[in-house]
Specification:
Elements lengths: L1 H17 L8 H7 L5 H23 L6 H13 L16 H32 L2 H14 L7 H6 L10
Helix pairs in contact: 4-5
Length: about 170
Amino acid sequence: IRYAALAAICLLAGPAAAQPPGPPPGMGDMHAMHGAGDPAAMKAKMAEHMAQMDKDMHTILRLRPDQEAAWRAFRDAMHQQAMPPMGMAPPKPAMTTPQRLDEMDKRAAERQAHHAKMEAATRAFYADLAPEQQAVFDALHRMHGAGPMMGRKVMMMHGGPGGPSHD
């Protein structure tokens, strides 16, 4: 009887031990909330985040109506320019070393062109700001980088989501 009970326990425990571990406690909801695994949900979440960052930067800089055109041009340039990925693309088996080097040069040129467009848009926007606004823009950049992706750090310091409340 002991052997039969031991065999039954082994048969029942085997499949349970073979199950992949679940997410750590509390992590399942976080992954679902951020749309992990769902590209459309992640893209929507990023668009929502970018829109909020744009709104917050607009507010922090206290842009005037006559600066709206420059602001829109700057914002649009930041959003339209997707940074080419860093590093090398996955190697293509049929490529020779000179072909891979050419591909690397092409990608470096794309990154440089991207940088030039971002720089031109930033310089044009900055030139349209008043000196006080330029000081704020400079401070934002020092804290975490200016632009639509300036990050939560700035918003938290200004009482935004996750920051101190002013009640």
